[in-house]
Structures are given as structure tokens and as C-alpha cells.
Amino acid sequence: MYSSWSLRGWLMLEKFALPHRVHMIGLYSGNMAKDMAHLAPARLVPALRTPEGTVVGETLAMGETLAERHPKAGLWPDDPALRATARWLCAEMASGFGGLRSECAMQFGHIWQGFAVSDAVNTDLARIETLWTHARALSGNDQGWLFGKYSLADVFYTPVAARIIGYDLPVSSAARTYCLALLRDPAVLHWQKLAQQMSYDPDPYALDLPKRAWTLD
Predict the structure, then answer these.
(1) How far apart are CA 70 and CA 175, in angstroms?
(2) What pLDDT score was predicted for residue 29?
(3) Which of 48, 72, 73 lies closest to 59 in space, CA to CA?
(4) What is the DSSP string of 35-88?
(5) N or C: which end of the chain has fewer CB within 10 A?
(6) Alpha-carbon span 204 to 74, nearest angstrom
(7) 158 burial via Cβ count (<10 Å: 0-12, 13-18, 19+)
(8) Is residue 20 helix, strand or coil?
(9) Could you tell me which CATH class the domain 4-69 is placed in?
(10) pTM over 0.70
């Protein structure tokens, strides 16, 4: 429901049809350290174990490892300039947008109404739109996936899309259309269905705000 990083890790395997098995970690149950002991020294979700037993933490490292192991899967764009730009967008996502992350926890249960958008969140949204516009200018693709074909850049920005829609944040119509495309993807809809089966008491990210059902319209 809430682990944006886990969603990225899962999507990079699921969307590119890479064989994998999923192991659940008790992120909010108090059992996280115990559940991850066999993946040491990784300490955060997600973590990847290769068939040879190598443990890889951090989604950027996971993505690069999978791209090396499956060069024909198309995780990165084929064109060198687009590939470099896609890596840049993923790296900035992994290290930045602190306001959006801290104030808008990813969730797929409902859409908050009346969320007060801070200056920090607005700054992050403006930067995200700048990056998306730059990617489209280079790729020549003004709709759909950022670089023409689905890539790790789309994987990394799917949780951003969930935050934008889940908090009804102010973005351009083009950015909103891209967010909806990401969230309507069958793999993401499957994740959402699984996420909505989970419940937490208390909810770790509850807000004193009205909310409406999660709809993508």
C-alpha cells in the first residue's frame, strides 16, 4: 500500500517479464529487521537476490543489475542520448523531491480532498514537470511513455503519479494525463488491487481530511 520503493522494484521485474519470486517484508509490523535478516547487509525494501545469491539493495542498483543481466528486455531506451537522460531522471527521482515524499505518502486507497500544497511540494512538482517536458522534447513523444517505449524512467515515476493523483495535486493537463496512463497500466492496477487488501491499525499516514474513492477519470 505505502512502499513506493517496493512498487518500483516489483514493476521493474513485472513489466519487463523477468522471472522472479516475491517475499513479503513486515514494513509496519515491527518484524522488518527479522524478515530481512537473510538479505543482510541490505536493510531497506526492496532488495534483490540474484539466482547466484548476490544481494542488491537500492532500486537504481537493482535496475542497472537487471539491465545488465537482461540486455534484450529493454529496461533502458536504446538511443544513447535517451538512455543517459532516462538514467538522469531516475537518479534525480531517487535522491530528490523531499517535500513531495515527506508530505504525500504514496497510497492507493483513496484520493484526499483539500490537501494544502506547501511551497516545497509545489517546487518539486514544477521540477518534475520540467524533467518530463525535457524527456519528451528529446524523445519526440508528446504522449504516452516518456521515451516512446516503456522504460525504467516510467517505473521510477509511477509512485510520483500515485502521489499526484492521490492528493489531487496541481499539475498541468499533460502531466496529469501521463500520471493517469502510468496508473492505468495493468500491472499497476494489479498492485493496487493487492494493496487495497491490506489494512493497518492505526493508519501510519492518516490525515484529518475528507477523501473520496480512488478513481482514475
Answers:
(1) 30
(2) 65
(3) 48
(4) HTGGGTT--SS-EEE-TT--EEESHHHHHHHHHHH-TTS-SS-SSHHHHHHHHH
(5) C
(6) 36
(7) buried
(8) coil
(9) alpha beta
(10) yes
Give φ, ψ of 203 to 5 degrees. Answer: -65, 120
Tens digit of each residue's pLDDT (9 = 90 or more) over 87-118 = 999 999 999 999 999 999 999 989 999 999 99
Bridge partner residues of 118 (DSSP): none
Residue 81 has pLDDT above 70, yes or no: yes
How far apart, in whole angstroms, are the C-alpha atoms of residue 107 and residue 196?
9
Measured distance CA(57)–CA(44) in Å, rounded: 7
Question: Which residue has cell 502510468?
Answer: 182
Domain boundaries, the chain: 4-69, 80-195
Asked which of 64-68, 73-77, 189-193, 207-211 is least confident by mean pLDDT, the reply is 189-193
Amino acid at 63: G
What are φ and ψ of residue 55, in 5° steps? -95, 130
Q: Does domain 80-195 have CATH number 1.20.1050?
A: yes
Chain-centroid distance, C-alpha 152: 10
Radius of gyration of the chain from its Cα atoms, rounded to whole angstroms: 17
Helices 186-195 and 4-14, interaxial angle, to 10°?
A: 140
CA distance 167 to 112: 5
What does the pLDDT read at residue 12?
97
Q: What is the separation of C-alpha 160 from the centre of its chain, rounded to a whole number of angstroms? A: 6
Task: Give rounded-to-5 percent helix, strand, coil for the chain.
Answer: 50, 5, 45
